[in-house]
Amino acid sequence: MLLDVLVVEDDFILLDFLYQELSNQINSLGGIVRKASSLDDARKLISQKSPDWILVDLLLPDGSGIELAEEFILNKPNSKVLILTAQADQYVLPATLLKNVHALINKADGLAPLREAVWEILKEVDSTFPELNSLTPRQMEFLHLIGKGLDTAQIAKKLDVSFSTAQTHRRQITRKLKIKGSALVTFAKTLPKSL
Length: 195
Description:
With 195 residues, the protein is of the alpha/beta class. The protein folds into two domains: 4-125, Rossmann fold (3-Layer(aba) Sandwich), CATH 3.40.50; 132-189, Winged helix-like DNA-binding domain superfamily/Winged helix DNA-binding domain (Arc Repressor Mutant, subunit A), CATH 1.10.10.10. Helices cover 49% and strands 16% of the residues. It has helices at residues 12-27, 39-48, 65-75, 111-125, 137-147, 152-159, 163-177, 181-189, and strands at residues 4-8, 32-36, 53-57, 59-60, 63-64, 80-85, 101-106. Strands 2-1-3-6-7 form a five-stranded parallel sheet, sandwiched between helices. Helix 1 links the parallel strand 1 (4-8) and strand 2 (32-36). Helix 5 (137-147) packs across helix 7 (163-177) and helix 6 crosses helix 7 (163-177). The longest helix is centred in the first third of the chain and has 16 residues, at 12-27. InterPro entries: CheY-like_superfamily, EvgA-like, Sig_transdc_resp-reg_receiver, Tscrpt_reg_LuxR_C, WH-like_DNA-bd_sf. It holds the Pfam family Response_reg. It comes from Prochlorococcus marinus (strain SARG / CCMP1375 / SS120). Residues 128-192 form the HTH luxR-type domain.
């Protein structure tokens, strides 16, 4: 399944950051991320090809992200929406959106809640998403260290195991997740801290 995600945010620096963050998670799995900085741009992109889910800011220069989310859900009733805002406590979501809004993320809370919400959606909507339950606790520890940028030799030293054992862990992780090379490193970088 080729996953298609749309990010809608009017702050260009944040838009580029969100685009890159989601690209790291989704591109390693063969998906694409598109971006828009306004309702009008988002509507044009959605009319060309409807995404699987959207990440949308509530306040856009030409209207409300809620308006876009409602239109999106009307045309794709089972889709998910992630809402991003700096004023999470000032909004009440319409009842029509409640079952589709996966998370309302406060921008002030940083990257961790976003990564976790994206991770959960990916597991839910993408049947090819790597199943981490197949990894042992030691392999999960190894995967987190890969995500921190350590190579196999550095991980072996940190975990106090032989280089051969570290290589075996890496091969098993690659086999179980069906991801290798730089895609594995990119994937590991996006792991939520809670895993």
